[in-house]
UniProtKB/TrEMBL annotation:
Family: Belongs to the NusB family.
Composition-biased stretches (Basic residues): 20-32
One cellular component (GO) term of this entry: cytosol
Gene designation per UniProt: nusB
Native species: Pelomonas aquatica
Upper classification of the organism: Bacteria, Pseudomonadati, Pseudomonadota, Betaproteobacteria, Burkholderiales
One biological process term in Gene Ontology: transcription antitermination
Keywords: RNA-binding, Transcription, Transcription antitermination, Transcription regulation
Location of region: Disordered: 1-32
Domain NusB/RsmB/TIM44: 32-155
Name of the protein this chain belongs to: Transcription antitermination protein NusB
Length: 165
């Protein structure tokens, strides 16, 4: 008669030979602000709804307390208020009218251009990278490459001294 074989615990067998999975780092308050502003701008671009109503809806969302509220307000309000100027900046670097861009990419580019223009405490490479990360999370396939190229060229216009360093 054969003796029962001892086996390793199931949990060890499942993970044997597999690399440990890393948890994604917690999102910063600024990143959360950009994501929330992106949602609001997307809604505004699609519906043309009053920005006050969109902002009020944003304040009711779960996670609002985790935002950098000042940055969120600046991005959402500033992008809407300066939409024509931001589109003019972007128009020099896009391959079609900004109104023909996907609303997500358009909103991401507006946020990136706004940060490049007004948020001088944020290095231009960080502003571009944050926009690229938004595009990876919310945009279409390879949209992040388009966002990167457009904002990299726009940075040359908006922050020429910083880009030349």
């Amino acid at each position: 008669m054969n003796a029962p074989q001892k086996t390793a615990p199931k949990t060890a067998a499942k993970t044997a030979g597999k690399p440990a999975t890393k948890r994604a780092p917690a999102k910063s308050a600024r990143r959360r602000s950009r994501e929330a502003a992106l949602q609001g701008l997307y809604q505004w671009l699609l519906t043309g709804e009053d920005i006050g109503a969109i902002e009020a809806l944003g304040r009711e969302q779960d996670g609002y307390a985790k935002l950098d509220v000042k940055h969120y307000d600046a991005l959402l309000g500033g992008c809407v208020q300066e939409a024509a100027d931001l589109d003019a900046i972007l128009a020099r670097h896009v391959d079609r009218k900004t109104t023909e861009l996907s609303p997500i990419e358009h909103a991401i580019l507006m946020i990136g251009a706004y940060e490049l223009k007004h948020c001088l405490d944020i290095p231009y490479k960080v502003a571009i990278n944050e926009a690229v990360e938004l595009a990876k999370s919310f945009g279409g396939t390879d949209g992040h490459k388009y966002v990167n190229g457009v904002l990299d060229r726009a940075a040359g216009d908006l922050r020429p001294v910083e880009v030349q360093r």
